[in-house]
Amino acid sequence: MAAGLIPLAEAQRRLLALAAPLAGELAPLDQAAGRWIARDVAARRTQPAADLSIMDGYAIRFADMPGPWRVVGESAAGSLPGFAIQAGEAARIFTGAPIPTGADTVLVQEEAAREGDRMALNGEGPPHAGAHIRRKGADFGEGAILLHRGGRASPAAIGLAAAAGHGALPVRRRPRVALISTGDELVPPGAPTSGSQLPSSNAPMLAALIAASVPAEVEDHGIVPDDPDATAAAIAAARHADIIVTTGGASVGDRDFVRPALIAAGAAIDFWRIAVKPGKPLMAGRLGDGIVLGLPGNPVSAYVTARLFLLPLIRHLGGAADPFDRAVAMRLAGPLPATGNRMEFLRGCRAGARARALPVQDSAGLSGLADADLLIVRPAYAPPAHVGDIARILTIA
């Protein structure tokens, strides 16, 4: 490992250690989706609350097979039948309706022949006692823990919570993220450019990445020129955020003012410069109650480090039990050269069931990043890789 560079795993661990998950709050179900559960959630009711029919047909006693039967009533979903089934009796029943007392089986309507209140078997009949019945508590019982702290409120989890009697869920507060873009060369997206000016692409890219991945409240604080006073003012204006994200200006050039401005504002920088390519000039620390994360200015570097650090940090503050994306194994469709002293994240795409690195890996090349649907993870000092070798892959699209 190169001197002074922090390995990825250590940097990620140190970043998350800077702050604990945010406070919990009770959110209505329509506002809880995608957030992380702050405490275990137990069922307030049993599901189903009674034995229910899973078919339209007739509720019978299996001991009375093969019939005939006398139809003595009807059971529909949403109400309890006010009668019991005796020997030789049956009840018309519909899908989702409770099984009358005394019945233990459902005869499907396609195998029943009825005339008035008389009903006979017209087929093979139910194969066993209990056929076509969903038993009380088959899904869950009252008091059972259904959602666990640190799990995500997925659409299915929202449905489960509603079925269990909950109209709201205990979730973590959404992290507040402030984005600050630095550089004299930047102009707002859509504005005309001249000379060496560049449209500011990092903030809209990062805001879109966050919106597509994690629940957070994002504020774009705009473009800050390479000026110490302007940088200090932008940082002061963003101090209410849980995470202040800067892009650019965190290196050691004469016009890189982010790090000294943060230190002047009272920030404690925990680490700076990581053994990752692209993304070496990454910085992290604390400022008051929040975390500052300085991402590189090159767009691809900003994107890759946002996936490796910013998204896991938002998930961690949001209460995720496992905040990191997990790499999967995939065989390579093409050869790869040996790596140097940094872990590399190569933009690539799927070629059938294999992964192929894109030919251009420029850290400012957004066209290649837009074409990529995965990152090929290469350890530092790895030897050349060959077609068919297994590599670790992070999916990004």
Automatic annotation (TrEMBL):
**Gene3D superfamilies named in the record:** MoaB/Mog-like domain, MoeA, C-terminal, domain IV, Molybdopterin biosynthesis moea protein, domain 2, Molybdopterin biosynthesis moea protein, domain 3
Q: Which GO terms describe its cellular component?
A: cytosol
Q: Where is the MoaB/Mog domain?
A: 178-316
Q: Which UniProt keywords apply?
A: Magnesium, Metal-binding, Molybdenum, Molybdenum cofactor biosynthesis, Transferase
Matching entries from SUPFAM superfamilies are given as: MoeA C-terminal domain-like, MoeA N-terminal region -like, Molybdenum cofactor biosynthesis proteins
Describe which pathway this protein belongs to, using the record's wording.
Cofactor biosynthesis; molybdopterin biosynthesis
What InterPro entries does the entry give?
MoaB/Mog-like_dom_sf (IPR036425), MoaB/Mog_dom (IPR001453), MoeA-like (IPR038987), MoeA_C_domain_IV (IPR005111), MoeA_C_domain_IV_sf (IPR036688), MoeA_linker/N (IPR005110), MoeA_linker/N_sf (IPR036135)
Any single GO molecular-function term of the entry would be:
metal ion binding
CDD domains associated with the record = MoeA (cd00887)
Q: Which GO terms describe its biological process?
A: Mo-molybdopterin cofactor biosynthetic process
Q: Give the E.C. number(s).
A: 2.10.1.1
Task: Give the required cofactors.
Answer: Mg(2+)
Q: Which reaction does it catalyse?
A: adenylyl-molybdopterin + molybdate = Mo-molybdopterin + AMP + H(+)
Q: Which family does it belong to?
A: Belongs to the MoeA family.
Task: Give a short account of what the protein does.
Answer: Catalyzes the insertion of molybdate into adenylated molybdopterin with the concomitant release of AMP.
Q: What is this protein called?
A: Molybdopterin molybdenumtransferase
